[in-house]
Design brief:
Number of strands: 0
Oligomer: single chain
Structural class: mainly alpha
Strand content: under 5%
Distance between the termini: 57 Å
Helix content: over 70%
Radius of gyration: 18 Å
Length: about 130
């Protein structure tokens, strides 16, 4: 019974974070939603999801940022703000920590450009 509660509480917290990872709920809000202490929520979230809450938020943000950098021409600062970072330097540090590349590298990666050109050629489209 305890495992069911833990799993449910961990998944509920995960869903709450995913619903608004740009302005994620506080640890206290997550804990209150399940009726447990913030300390318990932090440990439970890790036990259920195998990732810490801050790391999970950073992963969601950088995954979305990577998608925006690859598919749009938005400025890096605009992408940073859109995914929840208040400063470009904090965004770049988090992005590098998570992806192993700088945000600017996502646009300059020749293997990605080659892959896009090949895909465009196969579909009859034009590559830039």
């Amino acid at each position: 019974m305890q495992q069911d509660f833990e799993k449910q509480a961990g998944l509920q917290a995960q869903q709450m974070i995913e619903a608004d990872f740009v302005n994620p709920p506080s640890l206290t809000d997550l804990a209150n939603a399940s009726g447990i202490s913030p300390y318990q929520m932090s440990r439970l979230f890790y036990r259920v999801n195998q990732i810490t809450i801050p790391h999970y938020i950073r992963k969601l943000r950088t995954d979305r940022a990577e998608e925006l950098l690859r598919t749009t021409n938005r400025a890096i600062g605009q992408v940073a703000t859109e995914v929840g970072y208040m400063s470009i330097s904090a965004f770049c540090r988090a992005f590098f920590r998570e992806k192993g590349k700088l945000p600017s590298d996502m646009r300059r990666d020749p293997s990605d450009q080659l892959r896009e050109r090949r895909a465009a050629a196969l579909t009859g489209g034009f590559a830039a």
